[in-house]
Amino acid sequence: MLRKQAELESAQCRLQLQVLTDECTKLHSRIQDLQKLVIQHRDQIAQQPGSSQASFLNCLPSSQGQHKYHFQNTFTVSQTGNCRIMAYCDAMSCLVISQPSPQASFLPGFGVKMLSTANMKSSQYIPMHGKQIRGLAFSSRSKGLLLSASLDNTIKLTSLETNTVVQTYNTRRPVWSCCWCHDENNYIYAGLANGSILVYDLRNTSCHMQELVPQKARCPLVSLSYIPRAASAVFPYGGVLAGTLENASFWELKVGFSHWPHVLPLEPGGYVDFQMESRTRHCLVTYRPDKNHNTLRSVLLEMSYKLDDAGEPICSCHPVQTFFGGPTCKLLTKSAIFQSPENDGSILVCTGDEASNSALLWDAGSGSLLQDLQTDQPVLDICPFEVNHNSYLATLTEKTVHFYKWE
């Protein structure tokens, strides 16, 4: 009995040692990143005589290239409509588009249509959910593993290699958004209709491990984006950017996988969508028209922070650029913010415009309109991707997806 007890204590100590060793390794790596950041920041300030830190950090290069997006082709996804969102899997060169079942009488529900971007041909429909899908996100670590969020009170993991659902989590409330944690491989986030975020550990198949309760209004969480930690002078912290219909918060990921909320100082209400560009730490917030603004607005914001007296960060954001659309916005559409295919460091913003049935492409640095990509219906989602060193842009309407090539 004593031997068994000693063996058990020994096993527990070994496990504890392994956990602490892993944590120590992560912290050591983090310290090295921050040391590099301090040196880099000091050098940058030294090279900018007479300029403030703020003006240096706010500088976004403008796109100088002569290329633009050229229409390639249109693909009909669903004859009955009701398509909603897209996601691109780089490892499999595959675009997935949410749609209702094409054989609703035999197999009701919703799933995704797989579309090979190598030959622009459809492969098949994968059934997944009982109600409309509101969120899609691919894992950056596991090939073809798709996370989906639905109004049927579930999030699911689907393998595109086997075309089957491999895991289902019951959230007990409609799910409006989802994303992966890019700093810790085994965690996913689900944004609920009441504004809460459920955090799941893929190694625990029974229930969620944390619930992040909304700091303000309890309304649907329309978008989740994960900001990975980075040795960035602008914003080095990792965490979840959560946008509801009324407000937005940044949940900073702390040591021990705890989350600390920072309510972002944005104009209240009227939100449609939140998007993130992780390299430059900029986010894009889209507002519907209201009594003070008669057009759709997409505001480019730069994430920022300052340290309090205890040395803890107070995370915030400030506007850099505003892009204006048309006078109507009845749908919850999604925009896109991404690095220019020119690879010149510039950032592009693409927003749907219901009034003109088009996607507007903007240069984030100068704020100028680069292109007006016309479609036949309102653009619901926008997805940039690369195939064989060529850059493309896909725009989704209720029934079709339109492809444009950068050249």
UniProtKB/TrEMBL annotation:
InterPro entries, per this entry? RFWD3, WD40/YVTN_repeat-like_dom_sf, WD40_repeat_dom_sf, WD40_RFWD3, WD40_rpt
Where does the E3 ubiquitin-protein ligase RFWD3-like WD40 domain start and stop, copy by copy? 69-405
Under Enzyme Commission nomenclature, its number is: 2.3.2.27
Using the record for this protein, list the coiled-coil segments as residue ranges, or answer none. Answer: 3-37
Superkingdom of the source species: Eukaryota
- Give the UniProt keywords, A-Z: Coiled coil, Cytoplasm, DNA damage, DNA repair, Nucleus, Repeat, Transferase, Ubl conjugation pathway
Keyword rRNA-binding attributed: no
Instruction: Report the pathway entry.
Output: Protein modification; protein ubiquitination
GO MF terms, alphabetically ordered: ubiquitin protein ligase activity
Where is the secretion signal located?
none
Q: Where in the cell is it found?
A: Cytoplasm; Nucleus, PML body
The record, for PANTHER family, names: E3 UBIQUITIN-PROTEIN LIGASE RFWD3 (PTHR16047:SF7), RFWD3 PROTEIN (PTHR16047)
Name of the protein: RING-type E3 ubiquitin transferase
Q: Give the lineage.
A: Eukaryota, Metazoa, Chordata, Craniata, Vertebrata
